[in-house]
Records
---
Amino acid sequence: MNSDVFPAVAAEAAERLAAYWRALAAAELPVVPPGAPGTTLKALPETAPEQGEELTEILNDTWSTIVPQLVHWQHPGFLGYYPTNNSPASVLAELVTAGLGVQGMMWSTSPAATELEQRVCDWLALALALPEHFTHASGHGGGVIQDSASSAVLVALVAALNRASDGRWRQHGTEGRHRVYCTDQANSCVPKAARVAGVGEPVLVPTLHGTLTMDPVALAQRIDADRAAGLVPAAVVATVGTTSTCAIDPIHEIGPVCRERGTWLHVDAAYAGSAALCPELRCGHDGLEHADSYAVNAHKWMRTGTPCDVLWVADRHALTDAMSAAPSYLRNRATDSGTVVDFKDWQIPLGRPMRALKLWYVLRAHGLEGLRTVIRHDVRLAELLAELVENEPGFHLVAHALGLVVFRRSSDEQTHELAARLADEPGLLCTPTTVDGRPALRAAVGSPYADEAGIRRAWGVIRAHAHAAC
Ligand SMILES: Cc1ncc(COP(=O)(O)O)c(C=O)c1O
């Protein structure tokens, strides 16, 4: 493999990506691929080639075989799930990161990778107006880039279990005594993390009627009852921006409940956390000073390609006491000096790519003001969509917050029928959910190419299917 060919093929890949992004912006592609299951498998040889092939040929095959069978997550008609958006700055940084090929598990394995990560996590903490103790500069806590909100929650639970057991958890596990609390609106990654951490299913705290947010009084009662029964309430996971309806748990009330009882509070702000870049959209910030950890997916709504979740902790030692591992083959002078951060002790994997570079590129290329403009733009488009839903006979607005609009038709049967029709619609992707036991559809605005015309086009498609159905 001759690295001399790299500049030309990299330039060709960049050209192709730029053309792809133009086609997305013009909505020239479907959102959802046409192929049946197995289409791509059939197109690929069953064994790897014995002899190396030209990179240009592989690039051609990417566009002829792979791209047509992708769901185009950056498409303006992609309204499903929450967005996973990116930007040229992020893509460029990923190329440079890959080319540099460093592995920054410890400060000593790439000092600049670690220190850049410390700095960008602090930048973001300040930009999001997080409590000062979440920054590295404070000397107390700090931020670390994880791959996902799921990993962030798992790491937080491990730290919580370690703290709640004074480290005994390391030898004895949870012995069935530790409890984790959340609501039934928490993302599925929360019960999964609780299972993986050995706690089993979390305790589901009731939600307040009509809001789908955690009832802090019920939480306090449940924790107190569990403690009285000899159990250990180790952690509460609250959500700022639930997946189903973007509901926001009242951190200002949950925080003191946790603080008074010594229970770890993790705040999952995977989606809505980015909105805190805009002062007027800091909807879940009150009480954050009580949180032990907080996580946001920069890869959802901050133009930073996936994966890029940032987890902050208020007390870095609470995390590293639980996560550190120091075999002799990782010993080095910098670690022994105790003056550096080794991010391997802030996450589950040992090795780690240099993900901070893409956040650095994005924050510098867009500037905080540029990212605020993106978020405000998407919020305005969601307002337009919510208005269109509200003004349409036979449609009901179920929830609307930030970039998310949740709606249903008059009867559950009609909603199911609309969902089924939209599932076959190539030009649009919405996702289903259940709210208060009834079906609904979610539309989340967040494509880099979202604009008013695209939202009106998407709404036209939804309306047309609804009318064709009834
Ligand atoms: C509130 C919330 N938490 C966690 C997650 C899971 O995120 P990840 O895929 O980064 O694990 C999501 C995904 O949409 C989410 O909406």
---
Amino acid sequence: MNFDEGEDLTLLRDTLRRFLDRELPREEARRLDAAASHRPDLFAKLCELGVTGLTVPEEYGGSGVDILAAIVCIEELARRGTSLAGPYIHCAFYGALNLLENGSDAQKRELLPRLARGELLFAYGLSEPDVGGDLASATVTGRLEDDGATVVINGTKRWCTGARIADYIYTLVRSGPAEDRYRNLSLVLVPARAAGITITDIDHTGLRYSATTDVIFDEVRVPAANVVGGREKWHHGWPMLAGRSLDIEKLEITAVALGIAAIAVDDAWQYAQERRQFGRRICGHQAIRHLLVEARTRLAACRHMLYHAAWLATQGRDCSVESSMAKWFVAEHAVGIVLACQRVLGAYGCARDFDMERYVRDITCMPIVGGSSHMQLNNIANRLGLPAK
Ligand SMILES: Cc1cc2nc3c(=O)[nH]c(=O)nc-3n(C[C@H](O)[C@H](O)[C@H](O)COP(=O)(O)OP(=O)(O)OC[C@H]3O[C@@H](n4cnc5c(N)ncnc54)[C@H](O)[C@@H]3O)c2cc1C
């Protein structure tokens, strides 16, 4: 057993920390969050470091798939908020890893090299107004025209984060009778600016690297070649959605939670040594000392959970139980960690000029997004064969 982080990962962390200090000062991260806006120029600079190649094989222009390194990258980016971590995920995970796992040869040849260079962003069009965790009940329809060459899409996707900055919406459509649930679902790559698409923003509290939106599809026509996996994968969307890519998906949002919790602990640790009350630094008051070391201890446990699952994924091993365990454990504990850190800052933890209030807004989304905590517990119980009746 070896818990040492490889030199390559330490180098990656150092490179990213220097990059963020230089290119994305805390004030700018705060400004971007307030405006829920994306800086394509900054993302392009990040891509020059080669990090979007970490989820693309060399034959498609990447540096070879290294899930562990990509997860380290997300953790480091998330320490400076979600303004770069978000788009990175939309490119390297929503885009590259999904296509690598599920795309047709033609889709891989055309899109993976561009994803490796960071030139494309994908948004997820999965949730709907009445469809949350139960994605198999999706109602947005996809109709294959008689000549088999065109898919026509109708309906509304909700919470489609980044639709305004994305090139493609990775859209789950009902391609047959609703009773069939898991059968007759398909995934389609819909160009985000296709005719018939209307995007409206949803004002929201956390993960504000871009607007999250409603996307309304009104007779949106897409070539059947855009069915994920190719025309022959029509009606085969569910196994692609619930397969290995979903396991890795859980790790990516978990890495965001870890990065936010880690920087919250660092900020609180520092603040407690500077703030004086009752004649001493507040880190000298036992209540604050205990809050801080409990937070650090829980953070260490979160890190082990995430990196064990990411290590399994990197080895190409089954990690469906471990990734659900990590998603549940880290999301739940990260909320507790960040709220404890906010308390260390007292009133300043609520001030807009301090990052802590953003950490709180971001972290409270974590047990909800990327498969809610309850859904992770259901997955774990089912995967471990615990009888439900
Ligand atoms: C900031 C943000 C960004 C998002 N971005 C995207 C995006 O880009 N693309 C996208 O498709 N979606 C996105 N979502 C939606 C997100 O994926 C959903 O919120 C999530 O899937 C849960 O769905 P829901 O909120 O509708 O909750 P529901 O599914 O309605 O669940 C409500 C509550 O009931 C619980 N529950 C439901 N079913 C069960 C069950 N069987 N057992 C136990 N408990 C259950 C849930 O855990 C939850 O606590 C985003 C959400 C947010 C907040």
---
Amino acid sequence: MVIVRPCREKDLALLRAHIPTPGQPDRHATRFERQQNGHSTFLIAWMDDLPVGAGEIFWRGCSAPEINQHYPDCPELNGLDVWPPELRSQGIGTTIIAAAEDITRHHGHHWIGLGVEDGNSRAAALYLRLGYQETGRRYLDRYTYTDSDGTRHDIADPARFLVKSLDRTAS
Ligand SMILES: CC(C)(COP(=O)(O)OP(=O)(O)OC[C@H]1O[C@@H](n2cnc3c(N)ncnc32)[C@H](O)[C@@H]1OP(=O)(O)O)[C@@H](O)C(=O)NCCC(=O)NCCS
């Protein structure tokens, strides 16, 4: 059985041990800090007391300005990941998404959005199956990572933004 709940500080050690963040060694702590500052809710999926996935709700919406200007009040589910890969396609991602939608609805929001990078057709197919809709809005998903030589890389991956209504009567 999978349980999804917001991250607690004491979870960070297990997260670091079980969910790698290559090139971004402080990623779990950074996400937890954003949650503690009220900017996000950092959701962790647990199976048999081990973390097996994560996702983060950005309450101020997508950080890309080309999206945020059109969807300023639409929280974004960001950085969805199930780990290890052998646990994928067993419904864990769907469970995290459902939890994120419930929490966002309870915060009084009517919409949730997420970005999907070009080439991640499997994730896109999952989101569309779960009721997310194309907005036609594209953007560059920007992030940095540091490789094993210590060289920092600034990445800008082309992506598109999808949204889903959280109004149950609309679906
Ligand atoms: C994308 C991702 C988060 C989805 O999580 P997931 O746990 O694999 O997703 P789910 O299992 O809920 O659903 C995905 C698939 O499993 C199937 N599925 C769902 N519940 C299932 C179940 N109980 N039993 C068997 N299959 C199931 C779905 O039909 C879907 O089929 P597909 O494999 O053909 O796409 C995960 O695959 C992942 O971490 N990928 C790498 C990182 C990534 O791409 N993140 C998304 C960034 S936008």
---
Amino acid sequence: MDLKPSGNLKIDTFSMRIGDIEGVELDRLHALSLSVGWPHRAEDWQFLRESGEGFVALDDIGRVLGSAMWFAHGAGFATVGMVITSPRLQALGAGQWLMNRVFEKVAKRDLRLNATRAARRLYLSLDFQPEKTVYQCQGIARLQTMGKSTNTRGDVRSLDAKDIPAVIALDAAGFGVRRAALIERLFAHSAGYGLFKGDTLNAFALCRPFGRGHVVGPVLAESDADAVAIVRPHVADHTGSFLRIDTHMDNGEFAAFLSHSGMPVFDTVLTMSMGKRLSDFAVDGATAPVTYALASQTLG
Ligand SMILES: CC(C)(COP(=O)(O)OP(=O)(O)OC[C@H]1O[C@@H](n2cnc3c(N)ncnc32)[C@H](O)[C@@H]1OP(=O)(O)O)[C@@H](O)C(=O)NCCC(=O)NCCS
């Protein structure tokens, strides 16, 4: 007797194993991030792998169904990112499973991450504390002619290798944690502008290829006017092409400059922390530099 095949097939057993992200082909990681609509290129994954560590979730035949990474700085701090589970697996506990494996590796460190809307519930359930909104601003860059700032303190010029120590120090003062190795790696992939008074670096902005075009970040400055002064040349360099910047600033001269430069707010994520809060990292003093743009949502 011939049995008519059913139009439905129910599959309810599934197991995954954890693997080191190092051993995975880049195009498999790329396919994972594409599956959740993220813009990362294979090169962006490569950069992240060189900058941090991570796990993947693999099925029985080695397909990559999840990822989670961490980026340690010094002995006591790390950022967490690239937390992805394949859409078919979501809301089944895989995200929490991956994060618990990450916790085993970053125990006792203060943690910071930028949570998408989809991930907020996961991180809240893991005791991350909400901090600040990040505005993901992007679009086709165009140089605005109006509002050219006059309040900048110094001269803008291109950065070169001899400026790296000053860039690392300024980043550390704003970010709250020294991340020399990461800044050096970013520097090697970026064009940079700095605002100098004499020989002193007062502000800087790096810009590198990422995703659909280029991303500006990190940007460290002491005022909106200074931040605009060092981002403006990147906008000029990329006028007519896709440019992105992730910032905590939602109003003021800097935020207005971004939207007038073709980069309106596209989406938001939420900076969350575990352990020390963002304010605990703040440097005392009115002239402390501020992080005007993140290196990226993943790196902070
Ligand atoms: C965010 C993400 C990693 C969560 O992974 P996951 O495998 O679904 O996570 P889990 O199944 O372990 O779920 C963890 C918690 O979040 C809840 N959750 C998962 N997806 C959710 C969604 N889309 N909306 C609301 N809650 C959701 C789960 O119900 C669970 O809550 P509970 O502990 O109260 O039951 C996954 O949705 C994803 O890859 N999204 C796209 C990429 C992304 O945004 N990554 C986050 C980067 S910060």
